[in-house]
Each structure stands twice: as structure tokens, then as C-alpha cells.
Amino acid sequence: MANSEYMLNTRQHQRDSVSPKLKPEVQRMASVAREITYSVETNASPAFAWHYWTNIANWDDPPAEFELDGPFATGSRGATRLPRQEPVHWFIRDVAPPSAATIEMSLDGAALLFVWRFVGLADGRTRLTQRIVLKGEKADMYLSQVKAAFTANLPDGMNKLATAMANADPSHVSPSPSSQCSIS
Length: 184
Hints:
Low-confidence stretches: 1-30, 180-184
Strand content: 35-45%
Distance between the termini: 22 Å
Shape: globular
CATH class: Alpha Beta
Number of helices: 5
């Protein structure tokens, strides 16, 4: 039985709360952010889950291919390559082994952040949480693309990752992940 935790939050209040009395140039500077958060539990141990995920050879999301220049560490740069498209460049903004990392893609006037958390559970399993954040002055230009790319695909991708981790961990309890789902 799969449980997943899923939250979609559009921070339109930032845009909507701009007073109509403000000058138009001030209104354009208001930022809009989109946050999508998904959590899943895996039967992999916390240490194994962290080491598995930080090895980008394990990042399996066809047809995308991933490259990392250097170790999985703050400041390292990487690229995502898709057929017939220019590479998408990103960098590791922050790493706090073995529990958190943030990967950032810089966009024109905005940024897309992938914030990962690994929490050990009392039974030896791990809760993985990915929070995708779109922010910046021009974030609204990318809202539809981010929504289309991640809203429908994130649960399947996270569940696939949790299962792959559990199957690869020699100490796992069972091969299927457990997750909780909520949308708000």
C-alpha cells in the first residue's frame, strides 16, 4: 500500500496582495512563487538513501541524462541533457550530509530550487521529501512550465526513487515504499 504526502501551494498572495494603488512599475516587481512538495517513505536506511541519491549515476529519469562536474558538494555544477534540447545547467546550492541538499537552476529573472530532505524514521526507514520552489521577479513567466513539468510527474518519480533505493539497500525490510498523500 503506497501512501504519499503531496502539497501544491501557489503563493499568488504575493502578487494578489499588491495594491492597485501602487505604480505599475512597482507591481511588476512583485514576485510569484510556486511550491510543490512531495514526501515518500522508503524501506532503505537513511545512510543508504543519502548515498544512493547523491550518486547521480542512480538518477534514472529517461530520457534525461545527468552530469555532475566534481563531487556532490556545495558549489558543484551539473547539467541535465534531454534529446534535441540544449542542456539545462544547475548547481548544488547547499549540502548538509546526510540529511539535506538544495539544487538550483538559474532562470532569467527567477530561480528553480529542488530542496531535498532525508529523515530517518524510528523503524530504520527513511522519509524523502522534495520541495520544488520557483521564485524571483519573473517567476510568473515560468509558472505554467513548472506546473506542467512537475505537478503530475513528481509523485511517480519519487515513488520510483523510493522503490529503487529499497531494492538496492541490502538491509531493507521490503521492496515497496510507503508514502502519504495530501494536497493543499
